[in-house]
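Reminder: ligand-aware prediction takes two inputs, not one.
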Amino acid sequence: MTIEPDAHTAEHRLKTMHQRLGGIAYGGDYNPEQWPREVWLEDAKLMQRAGVNLVTLAVFSWSRLETADGVYDFGWLDEVMDLMHEHGIGVDLATPDAVPPAWLIAQHPDILPVLADGTTFGFGSRQHFDVSHPVYRKKAMAIAERMGEHYASHPALRMWHVGNEYGPVSYGPHADKAFREWLQRKYSSLDELNQAWSTDVWGQLYSDWSQVNAPAQPRTWSNPSRRLDYHRFTSDSLLEHYKAERDILRRHTPDLPIVTNFMRFYKTNDYWAWAAEEDAVALDIYPDPRDEDAHVAAALNFDLMRSLRKGQPWLVMEQATGAVSQWPVNVSKLPGKMRLGSYQAIAQGADSILFFQWRQAKGGTERFHSGMVNHAGPNTRIFHEVCELGQELKNLAGITGTRSTARAAVVFDWDCWWALELGNSPRSDLSYTQEVLRLYRPLFDANITVDFVDTKSDLSAYSLVVLPASYLLTDEVAARIEQYVHDGGRLVVSYLSGIVDQDNTIRLGGYPGALRKVLGAWSEEMHPLAGEGEEVKLELADGGAGSASYWTEHLHAETAEVLASYSSGRLAGSPAITQNRFGSGSATYISARVDSGVLHPLLLDECAAAGVVPLLEALRGVQVRRRSGDGKSYLLVLNHNDAPASVDVLDGGMDLLSGSRVQGTVEVPPFGVLVLEESVSEESVTAEATR
Ligand code: GLA
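Here is what comes back for the chain with alpha-D-galactopyranose:
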């Protein structure tokens, strides 16, 4: 039995869009205003050849759509929308707020964002706005209103794309005012703010609200609690802007999905808060082709995107067919890698494969960023790969809407990220995302599907929860984590967790303050290892040995058992890894950066103890994922290695790419992919329908 999502829910809007597109969305950004009209028709025909069913229009078109204050010209866009419709191609229409036009900046130069050091950005790139500027906001809303009104009933319109990669941070006068108002909503009094920001340190006490402003560049180091609030304010104020445009479009088109595009490892915006306001999470992903391990960081980002809206399928909004133009050396993707990366996203829950951009630009900043059609034209390797992928994806329509399930979760939290990297801490080179990646990697390598959760999430659905460098934990969160373990959960915590409260104030009485009780261990001092390549030796309780580098701390076990101790260095004899039985669960503390020979087996043992099993046993670099739902189940096998890989797919299924049945041990070619439609028993369909 299929449960129909309610009309007017995000799920319903997406489902309807995919039905109208005929399955997976395929296409990319299209910027016809950069080309003469005769190219438009050729584009439409080539799009049909490539199997394109969706293009994103108008992302950077504000100056062509509003040519002077209040003078709107939608004629050219009408023509393009009609052309797309005539060729059976849907449109994801953008509001162009990323590029306030030159005439608007000339009238209001203070729309331009101001850096912390007081420098004002110039005109001539994009995202050149301070989102708190009242005229910018008014004009952005006005064009969104006009576009909503004008295109609501256009037959090609399938989805809205609000703005582009929201992110400009400003420290100018408009931001000052908006920050002050944000703080007045957060703190009931100035005393409360003074307390939260520890302003007695270095005599920073405020005696009137008018003295409080954005943390512009001070003479020397700046207050970390104030800067943390500024991160929160920036994310909130950009989100408010997005929501205001979204609400305008929603009034005109209640049945269409509305999204904006997210970025990989993007620190400015708290994507948990953002995702809750989207109809779907949409990601722009540009792994560096020079990095052979790029698929692991990509996997982390894909799992994060899948998790942000609790497993709902998400969209690849942009990726490149070949080279980008943002690295020092821009290498093109190897043949087959664009296809492999696309299937990786699908395996991890994406229901679209879209590129930036359709036709490679011949001028402007990104003239060397590859397109679906490159400078050389359609008779190229890249266009052939684009067409082949477009044809293949037509066989995968059934996968849209299906989901993955996970019994292990990793915490990813923007408050922790912001607070950890504010500097003036025991190390200034701390990277939150690298700490998360370090603990995610063993699970990825073992083909254990994980969800990401934020610190506010309900953990009870998971039998294993990993907390990497979860630096900021509120009392309420710490209590819930404790309860989770007490009720039988298995918890793994890494160093620099639970150090501060919501105000970025240190928790006293031994690190990791918030988790001391559940871990049954405490540290009296942090001991980062300063020397390049400096290592200390570890002795494991099971008789093994290992090493730690980068981070150690002087740990004491209270109720916890010691799993590893230092056997060299100033902490020789002290514990490095502990495990505490707490209620019916257990909490493991990895207080040092231990080598992968220690970390990987430790995490896999934890998985085994929690009953979390790999989807399939496979060679490193062979990724396996399952998506299921609606009585269907798909097993996707991806070979990220540059050599063939033998994989036992057990019962296997029908390979939707080759059209043949596959079972038992099969050889997957280098960068090859299997998409196996598995047979699903009656019982599992019933179990799923009643879940
Ligand atoms: C981003 C932007 C695009 C384009 C690509 C390629 O994701 O949204 O407009 O610039 O990067 O660099």
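The pocket of alpha-D-galactopyranose is lined by residues 164-165, 284, 318, 324, 326, 356, 366, 369 (CB under 6 Å). The chain has a mean pLDDT of 96. We will return to this case in the review session.
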